Amino acid sequence: MTWRCISVLAESVASLGAYNLIDQSTHYAVGLEINANHIRSKREGMVTAVGVPLHKGRTTMVWEMKILDEEHKLICIFSVYDRYNFYKQIILSAKRYCTQDFKSKCRIMG
Fold it and tell me: Which domains are delineated in the chain?
């Protein structure tokens, strides 16, 4: 198993955990940072991701993720930082980006 696969697993578990702890009708969660320490390699078999929220603040969460093999040996440990915002902020950001992009195209063309 490559470190990329294991990183995707850790990020997915943290994102699902964050999603389950926020109000999905008003908020969304995104990953900010992931830090990994690879302890040993795993060539075949199964791994399990165990995630624990270490901090749940007003706008951020910190997750500790442990990747274990079938014998419960530690393969990798991750710290994942997630941020959550209101959906309204996404819409405003998108409108602002589109407006700025349109203006920059107009300046280039004209």
Answer: 3-109 (3.10.129.10)
User: Cα–Cα distance between 72 and 16 in angstroms, integer?
Assistant: 22
pLDDT tens track for 22-39: 888 888 888 888 899 999
Gap between the Cα atoms of 41 and 58, Å rounded: 36
φ and ψ of 57, to 5 deg = -95, -165
What strands lie across the sheet with 47-56, from one edge to the other? 27-38, 74-86, 60-69, 47-56
Q: Is 64 a catalytic residue?
A: no
Kindly name the residue from 11, 33, 70, 71 that is annotated as catalytic.
11
* Dist. CA 78–CA 76, nearest whole Å: 7
Chain segment 36-83, per-residue pLDDT in tens: 999 998 888 899 999 899 998 888 889 999 999 999 999 999 998 888
